[in-house]
Amino acid sequence: MNEVGTPNLTLDVQGMLCPLPVIRAKKSLKSLNVGETLLVITTDPVALIDIPHMCTQLGHTLLQTRDTDTGHSFLIEKAS
């Protein structure tokens, strides 16, 4: 993170349904350096399953999951 709580990149995929939030998150993570963070904002309820699963499969760290007014946000730290 640049500052405490500030992600390096924010990805707003509100209104997109599975599998697009995961596909876009994977693409965005490729543009980051190891240790940088991505904030994903989504309205897709399936993202509660898909985003953590993607992190586990690819070795990234899911730092935080939060409920939002319209869905959820996920803070992911890029692994090597």
Structure description:
The radius of gyration is 11 Å and the shape is globular. The protein has 80 residues and is α+β, with helices and mostly antiparallel strands. The mean pLDDT is 94. The two termini are 16 Å apart. Helix 1 (20-30) packs parallel to helix 2 (47-58). It has a single domain, classed as Translation Initiation Factor IF3 (2-Layer Sandwich), CATH 3.30.110.40. It is 29% helix and 29% strand. Strands 1-2-4-3 form a four-stranded mixed sheet, with helices on one face. The protein has two helices and four strands. It has helices at residues 20-30, 47-58, and strands at residues 9-12, 37-42, 61-67, 72-77.
In short:
The chain has two helices and four strands, in the order βαβαββ. The protein is an alpha+beta fold and 80 residues long. It is globular.
Number of helices: 2
Could you say what the CATH topology is called?
Translation Initiation Factor IF3
Average pLDDT figure: 94
Secondary-structure class: alpha+beta
Pick out its properties:
4-stranded mixed β-sheet; Translation Initiation Factor IF3; 29% helix; 80 residues; alpha+beta
Summarize the topology:
Elements: E1 9-12, H1 20-30, E2 37-42, H2 47-58, E3 61-67, E4 72-77
Parallel strand pairs: 1-2
Antiparallel strand pairs: 2-4, 3-4
Helix pairs in contact: 1-2
